[in-house]
Amino acid sequence: MTVGLAGEPARPPAEPGDLEAVRDRLAREPGELTPHRVARALRESGRPVGDAAVLAVYEALRRDVVGAGPLEPLLRTPGVTDVLVNGADRVYLDRGAGLEPTGVRFPDEEAVRRLAQRLAAVGGRRLDDATPHADLRLPDGTRFHAVLAPVARPGTLISLRVLRPRGFTLEELEAAGTLGPDAAELLRAIVATRLAFLVSGGTGTGKTTLLAALLSLVAPAERIVLVEDAGELRPRHPHVVGLESRPANIEGAGEIGLRTLVRQALRMRPDRLVVGEVRGGEVVDLLAALNTGHEGGCGTLHANSAVDVPARVEALALAAGLARAAAHSQLASAVDVVLHLARDRDGRRRLAQVAVPERGSDGLVTMAVALGLGPDGTITPGPAAGRLASRLGS
Ligand SMILES: Nc1ncnc2c1ncn2[C@@H]1O[C@H](COP(=O)(O)OP(=O)(O)OP(=O)(O)O)[C@@H](O)[C@H]1O
Ligand SMILES: [Mg+2]
């Protein structure tokens, strides 16, 4: 596989210091890689901004970032959200209609491995037999995940999530058919009333996207504190700060996990505490925070249906040492509403359910449906419709 741009006229190479400075800045504020942004980043880091320097850095980064060899045309195809490599012979993409096989092939497993390692290095991580997995964000914002073979089968697995140049607004989600006007109105009310909510759904159903759209509706005077594994949420809001977890270094030291970060975030006077993706023990800290006066918190959670949310929270909390009864009681009082997303057979992502946690006489939480939303936009009120309305003060 060739990843260099063979045949291009030679240009003076970028100064390593320039490259580092720009990479740093762009990584802090992911977005599309353009010469304009490179020039700005150079300027902001007090480095020379001549045309030659800008171009040299731009091209070096472009090669780094989009030097994805045979994957590059796929990543550039309009509408593509995911590119998945299952070893040398199978590459799939998703452009909104479910997974589609592509004709792209790598010469051999070694080539896939090399590409995975190179992209990981671009994101500042090692990927080798000692640490055969990596999850990170490339400087252009693309989310990169890989697991090397033989841990991964049938070969090295690479999952790339393409970042939209900017997130969806709630109106755009409406236009895309993700939800209708009435549901959008309800979500606006949920944000305005500062209810605590979880966005649930299966993988790639648009949870992060919906959460970002909702955070963009938060009143400008509020301070949003994001806690994430890989900085992904970029709400359009004037006051957003974020904390990102960090894996251990090669000596096994220096790990900063989400639990620590949630606790740190609480000391930062958040008006909205946001855990981008709740997938471990941080659920305990988030629930505790929401139960101790931190209203309006939110996050996303993998779950196949809204009904599964309590079991999922319970499992994560148990693994972190919180007893079952405590997990349920915390969930019931912490979370006001769950917004569940689903993906239809035709690939369309949509809001499918709005549900409210309800505590039974056994103390366990079940999800009561407030609204069911059909593929054709029909809204069916469920048993908890009244409870949701009263939480919204209407
Ligand atoms: N409603 C939507 N309509 C069209 N495309 C969407 C919609 N929501 C999300 N997408 C696109 O689908 C991809 C997956 O979205 P997102 O990252 O929000 O999903 P997720 O459920 O958070 O995924 P994961 O399970 O990996 O966390 C993104 O590229 C996003 O731009
Ligand atoms: Mg997500």
TrEMBL record:
Protein family according to the UniProt entry? Belongs to the GSP E family.
Signal peptide residue numbers? none
Q: Which PANTHER family match?
A: TWITCHING MOTILITY PROTEIN PILT, TYPE IV PILUS RETRACTATION ATPASE PILT
Which stretches make up the Bacterial type II secretion system protein E domain?
A: 67-344
Protein's recorded name = TadA family conjugal transfer-associated ATPase
One Pfam family name from the record? T2SSE
Q: Which NCBIfam families did the record assign?
A: heli_sec_ATPase (TIGR03819)
- Superkingdom field: Bacteria
Which residues does the annotated region (Disordered) include?
1-26
